[in-house]
Design goal:
single chain; 7 strands; 7-stranded mixed β-sheet; Rossmann fold; alpha/beta
Length: 231
């Protein structure tokens, strides 16, 4: 017998809590409720506009929310400013903002419909330190206060790894970290070598549990050379 909407939502909440606990991220009642609002809004909005291929509450929790939260243990405790390039429906920045509300997030997204959704979500969830830049990343290179200004850079598979790294690099401060959500090792090793030549070196790596995200999913932490200045 198919699950009722209430049962599906309850199971999705339980899946989220169990996964977050496995990552060392305890969630209080208010945060669980906020994740549910985000998840339900994503499903409802996706029925009339193409926001994500994730269709069920469980898929959104596993491949969206937990896949995003897997980045949280790699966020330095002192991180103050994070830029997320190609935010789409909000992964990974919105889930991370819900568990790290003290961090300032800048979401870069050129799609008008996705920007409309992100603005709605930010209002709904009262994410006071999240700002949206409705633009392509390249257009922000000349904007004041952007180059070399961020502690962390995020980009969830919006392009091949070397291309993403070169896009994120100018926004990072010297010593800043690019958290790259990648696939299996054989597909990214060449990209890691290319990025090393640009001034990004791997300093940490985590394998995302299969039940959280996609097969072979890894998160690479690449540090910008301390003496590297904005391009």
């Amino acid at each position: 017998m198919p699950l009722t909407a209430h049962e599906a939502a309850s199971r999705a909440d339980d899946l989220l809590v169990a996964g977050a606990n496995a990552l060392g991220i305890p969630l209080d009642i208010d945060t669980i409720a906020a994740f549910r609002v985000y998840r339900e809004d994503l499903i409802r909005w996706s029925q009339r506009m193409n926001l994500t291929a994730l269709a069920t509450p469980a898929q959104i929790v596993q491949q969206g929310l937990l896949d995003s939260l897997a980045c949280a243990p790699l966020l330095p405790t002192t991180a103050g400013r994070v830029i997320d390039i190609g935010s789409g429906a909000g992964f990974p920045a919105v889930p991370l903002a819900l568990v790290r509300p003290e961090i300032e997030f800048s979401l870069v997204e050129p799609s008008r419909k996705k920007v409309t959704f992100l603005r709605h979500v930010i209002r709904q969830l009262n994410l006071r330190r999240v700002r949206i830049h409705p633009s392509r990343a390249e257009a922000l290179l000349g904007e004041s206060g952007m180059l070399g200004a961020f502690d962390i850079g995020l980009a969830r598979a919006v392009a091949p790894l070397p291309e993403i790294g070169r896009l994120v690099l100018p926004f990072l401060r010297p010593g800043g970290i690019f958290l790259a959500q990648t696939g299996p090792a054989e597909h990214v090793q060449a990209g890691i070598y290319d990025l090393a030549e640009c001034g990004l070196e791997v300093v940490d790596e985590r394998v995302v549990p299969l039940e959280f995200g996609k097969t072979g999913r890894r998160i690479l932490a690449l540090r910008k050379a301390p003496d590297r200045q904005p391009a």
